[in-house]
Amino acid sequence: MKFELAEWSSKIEVGLPEIDAQHRQLFELAATFAGDGEQIRVLKSLAMLTEYVKVHLREEEEMMAACRYPGLEAHKRLHAEFRRMLFDLLENAKQMTLDEIAEAVKFLINGWFYNHILIADFAYVPSVRAASDLPRQPD
Ligand SMILES: [Fe+2]
Ligand SMILES: [Fe+2]
């Protein structure tokens, strides 16, 4: 799959402060992979990025579930695909050059993740807003 690579910008702000802060943090972390570095430090950063992504995806899924977002299952499948790509990279990174790792991180965050926010994350916002504006309904 080919994506336009893009940096974080207000264009991908969904308007939910906590989600936007997490998205932005992932882009900031991804930006640290460019340039020189030591293999060990880069591998640590990659493990950290994977961990942060995991937390973000889980929190987003919990939020969508709490709002009964009808697209939850499809969105979770996209997250599963993203997690798998990141774990594959984490596993293969020891045999990769730092440039290759930086390239792969760029594809995942500035490509895949950027486009995921624009399309899939923006799609849940109306449901989240509707659910948080209404008083809680007893089950
Ligand atoms: Fe997200
Ligand atoms: Fe998402």
UniProtKB/TrEMBL annotation:
Which UniProt keyword terms apply here? Iron, Metal-binding
Q: Name one GO molecular function term.
A: metal ion binding
Name the InterPro entries on file.
Hemerythrin (IPR050669), Hemerythrin-like (IPR012312), Hemerythrin-like_sf (IPR035938), Hemerythrin_metal-bd (IPR012827)
Species source reads Accumulibacter regalis
Q: Say yes or no: keyword Lipoprotein present.
A: no
Q: What protein am I looking at? A: Hemerythrin-like metal-binding protein
Q: Which family does it belong to?
A: Belongs to the hemerythrin family.
Coiled coil segments of this chain: none
| Pfam families, alphabetized | Hemerythrin (PF01814)
Q: Which domain of life is it from?
A: Bacteria
What region holds the Hemerythrin-like domain? 16-126
